Amino acid sequence: MNRILISLFIILAINNHLFPQNLKKDQETFLEAEYFLMFEDYNDALPYYLELYETYSENSNLAYRIGICYLGIPGSKHLAIEYLEQAAKESQASYREGSLRQKTAPYTAWYYLGNAYRINYQFEKAKEAYKKYRETLLDDDTDNILFIEHQMLVCDNARNIMKNHVKYEEENLGEQFNDGNKNFNPVISSDGSRFAYMSSLKFYDAVYFSYKERNKWTDPVNITPDLKSDGDLYISCLADKGNTLFLSKDDDINSDIYFSKYDGKKWSSAEPVSDVINTKYWESHAFVTEDGSAMVFSSDRSGGMGGLDLYISYKRSNGEWGQPVNLGPEINTPFNEDRAFIINNGTLLFFCSQGHYNMGGFDLFKSEKLQSNNWSKPENIGYPINTADDDVFFMPVNNGRSGYISVHREGKGYGKEDIYKIKFK
User: Fold this and answer.
1) What residues make up the domain containing 182?
2) CA 41, CA 38: separation in Å to the nearest integer?
3) With the CA atoms of 349, 242, 200 and 335 taken in that order, what torsion angle do they form, in degrees rounded to the nearest 10?
């Protein structure tokens, strides 16, 4: 009789583990995580998913989401692999969002697994994962087919690019501009007197500003309240000797370009630039030349080469921006081009791209303006400034011989992402 009771207890215990009575509570936890994931708040979403995974370790959909979170957290991207391996093996076409009862992952798990391998420099495994994902695509899904075949190609490019290290020195800007947060998008005025950057605070992304006084930088001030921002304004550039700040406003649905003016004491509320630049499409990251005569920006408006393209607009005699012109197929690809900076009187262009001779994700490129008003073939600025991960922001100074970047250095620096100044040798 005791043996029967013990056996029954074991069965009940197993059933309680598989079908916990607090499933409703766990579903609420899952939806909490889904909310944060929707807004790419990976650090906030991850603990919820990991808590659930302790109970539902066979749930490959949870593993899929944990993998995506780790891929979005600097310093933790290597941890994504084991979860995405589990998810990819249990992936299928039939997939329902928003439910903890969904136990298998979507086919896109193979794509994210390829990214995880690539970011961690496991290029052959990345190619195999991308190939698996390619096999799940329908023949008429030409855009995704083109993109995934390019991802397979960049795995070969990466090995070649890594053979020739670009030589440079880097200097961390120190605790005046770096802390335990993610500090990013550093920009400096053309005369070198004013500096702005972003910092991810607890509840929003803040805009900070500093200026030189007696050849020393003042302590950065959070100017987000001046801009009347809800944490959705992101720095693009400082123009007009640092008296005008250009930003993009990203509400996860649309993005437009904004500007703010500095009167020597405070910044004005951010306002959108003209409708010639902003459209119903996605416009982001504008950079204005030193003399204020031209603006280069990115947009996915119709008529482009594909994805985000780079456009240039010249200021008219009446002070208004002229009709933007696409920079053409030498610069723009079927993929995304973004974060453009144009210096040396509009003759030297730095930008990031998912296309061209690329080693994975976004890489940084430079191109020179030719006499024919065309652009030279973009040159990859090299490894290890470019990595197998996304490299999107390089603010050039000193005729492109130096610049500012924001990167995560494992075991170094002050926080999740620090601002550095680099100087090419």
Assistant:
1) 168-424
2) 8
3) -20
